[in-house]
Design brief:
Elements: E1 4-10, E2 13-19, H1 25-29, E3 35-37, E4 42-46, H2 49-58, E5 65-66, H3 68-88, H4 95-108, H5 115-127, E6 131-132, H6 141-154, E7 162-166, H7 171-181, E8 187-190, H8 194-202, E9 209-213, H9 214-217, E10 263-266, H10 278-287, E11 292-293, H11 308-315, H12 323-330, E12 331-335, E13 341-346, H13 351-358, E14 362-363, H14 367-370, E15 381-384, H15 389-401, E16 404-406, E17 409-411, H16 416-428, E18 430-437, E19 443-450, H17 454-464, E20 470-474, H18 477-489, E21 494-497, H19 503-514, E22 520-524, H20 525-528, E23 539-542, H21 549-559, E24 569-574, H22 579-589, H23 601-612
Parallel strand pairs: 1-5, 6-14, 7-9, 7-10, 8-9, 10-11, 15-24, 20-22, 20-23, 21-22, 23-24
Antiparallel strand pairs: 1-2, 2-4, 3-4, 12-13, 16-17, 18-19
Helix pairs in contact: 5-6, 6-7, 10-11, 15-16, 16-23
Length: 613
């Protein structure tokens, strides 16, 4: 029996149909979303460009008869993808789109955008469900604003609202930028209590653009399902707990599902890389309600080759149906020592086809082209800070014997994770012990950062030698609190953006620094590493090294971006002979699993083993 493939015109949508022998079933099974029918013994997958590419990859050396209709479909799709490739690399828009965009500027008196931004706006409006992957700092917001204006012009203003999902710290910056670049569009920030957010969404007076923070998204929409992830259900939807109300039910339609969205715009879309997360599944459901879907990120692949899959599943669930088969076909997987598997990179033998199903949907213009007058950052500088007495002895004791004496009390890390944490703490400052309670009310030993700190003494000395505005990054909010205490004593003006602050407070801190009211702004990577503008800074100081390339690129993009006033100095404060040296080395090597030390046990063990050698 010679295998064959053709189009099956099913009423629910066309399918790629494959007939093959039992010995070839394992080939058809590798196509994402391809399932076997016992009724007619045919394999079927939703017909799409990724399915066609996967089919061609898997059967490239295996004899198979491809019927003319399917071959013609593949040729048409290849021509469309070629056009997308041409547009994604086009600096300016095509002439007819240029004219439309110039009409927008003339009609609304909006500021003129650069040619590459005009090309990006046309790309979004032309291809409906595509993203922008321009490096952080290029200026993607004006592209989106111009694309939204273009839709309003084409539809003569009669178009449903757009939804921007962004970090909480970016709500007000997005509002301000839309007011600057698209002043005719009304914008509503959806924040506050759950009731206030609902009222903002359900008001009869519709806005043109709604802004909501990532953490609040899932409370106002139902969630899309994902294998292995249960949904909270009320009794109406099969739940057993009568306390689960429709508001808490994750299957119930909610406020956002009643809105006639035209565009869904996930800003910092790399936050969707975890397919199991509730905010990812919230975006999945909303994306299906709107004709346009424009994800934005400067770091599409933050950690693994599979990071783009959840975003592409939102673009087209039919084209990207199965993550497991996506992994099997395109990713390198190894057995993890702690169980399960770890995804490393792209399989060399299928690399070309992997790029063929990912790259056409993303436009990326390098900084050198988008910002030809960019002030290239200075080469990294290093300040090596020796530990003071309160740090050195405990560090050596924990490193060698897992036991240290602090103020006459013994501290013994329970495992490698705790050991690593203690070494990171002591590399930055001293530590102190206090009594606390666990969840059962038993007394436990708590370890907190304290002064003195050789690193903070050196940071204060650095600030005394310059009058520059400085963005200072640390991993620990407690360490930032110690730094604030030191700066307050030295009468150096400062502010911060850390976890736990509300959105107006983050915005106020951002504006205080941008307006020159304070010299130093402290950031934790999770709270202040995305979607804020800090172009007035001339120095980026890493008080605690972070191995994540995602964190580095996002934080650097806060300073190295359009409108920057100075050539950026990047300074690393590293305690020599400590775990910090290995953390910095990880970032430099750009290892694929260096995204989060605390969540990668294998990588954590590698660091601690290096310390023990």
């Amino acid at each position: 029996m010679t295998a064959w493939a053709q189009i099956d015109p099913d009423p629910k949508g066309p399918y790629l149909a494959i007939g093959c022998s039992v010995e070839e079933n394992h080939l058809a099974q590798q196509i994402p979303g391809c399932n076997y029918s016992k009724h007619d013994h045919i394999w079927r997958a939703p017909l799409s460009w990724p399915a066609w590419v996967a089919f061609c990859e898997i059967w490239k050396i295996q004899p198979i008869q491809v019927y003319p209709e399917l071959a013609a479909y593949g040729a048409r799709q290849a021509a469309i993808v070629d056009e997308m490739y041409e547009d994604r690399g086009r600096i300016d828009a095509e002439p007819e789109w240029q004219w439309e965009l110039e009409r927008v500027e003339m009609a609304n008196g909006s500021p003129r955008v650069d040619p590459w931004q005009r090309g990006a706006a046309a790309w979004l409006a032309k291809w409906y469900r595509v993203g922008l992957e321009d490096p952080t700092g290029n200026g993607k917001t004006p592209c989106v604003a111009r694309a939204l204006q273009l839709l309003h012009l084409k539809h003569e203003g009669d178009i449903s609202p757009a939804l921007v999902i962004c970090p909480g710290s970016a709500l007000f910056p997005w509002r301000d930028k839309l007011a600057e670049w698209a002043p005719e569009l009304s914008v509503r920030v959806v924040r506050g209590t759950a009731l206030q957010r609902s009222r903002a969404l359900l008001s009869s007076d519709l806005a043109d653009v709604y802004l909501i923070a990532w953490p609040n998204l899932r409370y106002h929409t139902r969630l899309a399902p994902y294998p292995g992830q249960s949904l909270v259900r009320c009794p109406e939807h099969g739940g057993l707990d009568p306390k689960i109300t429709p508001g808490r039910c994750e299957v119930h339609e909610k406020d956002m599902n009643e809105m006639p969205w035209s565009v869904i715009i996930p800003d910092e879309a790399h936050r969707m890389r975890n397919a199991k997360s509730k905010w990812t599944r919230a975006v999945w459901h909303l994306a299906g309600q709107a004709p346009y879907f424009w994800p934005l990120t400067g770091t599409l692949v933050a950690d693994k080759a599979t990071d783009p899959w959840p975003i592409h599943h939102a673009m087209s669930p039919q084209a990207y149906p199965s993550k497991s088969r996506f992994l099997d076909l395109w990713a390198v997987k190894v057995n993890a020592w702690h169980g399960g598997t770890e995804v490393l990179g792209i399989r060399p033998e299928t690399e070309a086809s992997y790029h063929g199903v990912i790259q056409p949907y993303w436009r990326r213009i390098p900084k050198e082209i988008a910002r030809p007058d960019r002030l290239e950052p200075y080469p990294p500088e290093f300040r090596y800070t020796e530990m003071v007495t309160g740090q050195l002895a405990p560090y050596r004791q924990i490193k060698r014997a897992l036991l240290a004496e602090i103020e006459g009390q013994s501290i013994m890390p329970a495992n490698a994770m705790v050991k690593f944490t203690r070494l990171c703490q002591l590399a930055a400052s001293s530590i102190e012990l206090s009594d606390g309670e666990d969840q059962f009310g038993f007394t436990t030993q708590q370890v907190n950062l304290s002064l003195p700190s050789g690193k903070l003494d050196d940071f204060l000395e650095f600030l005394g030698d310059t009058d520059e505005q400085v963005v200072a990054v640390a991993n620990s909010p407690r360490f930032i609190a110690l730094a604030e205490h030191k700066l307050a004593l030295a009468k150096i003006t400062h502010t911060k953006i850390v976890g736990g602050m509300d959105d107006p407070a983050k915005y106020a801190a951002n504006m205080a620094f941008q307006n020159g009211e304070v010299r130093v702004i402290f950031l934790t990577a999770g709270a202040g590493g995305e979607s804020i503008d800090l172009q007035s800074a001339s120095t980026l100081a890493w008080l605690q090294p972070n191995p994540s390339t995602l964190v580095h690129d996002q934080v650097m993009g806060r300073v190295d971006r359009r409108g920057q006033l100075y050539r950026v100095r990047e300074i690393y404060f590293i305690t020599p002979g400590t775990v910090e040296e290995r953390l910095y080395a990880l970032m430099c090597e750009k290892q694929e699993r260096a995204n989060s030390v605390s969540r990668d046990v294998d990588l954590l063990r590698w660091i601690v083993q290096g310390e023990d050698q």
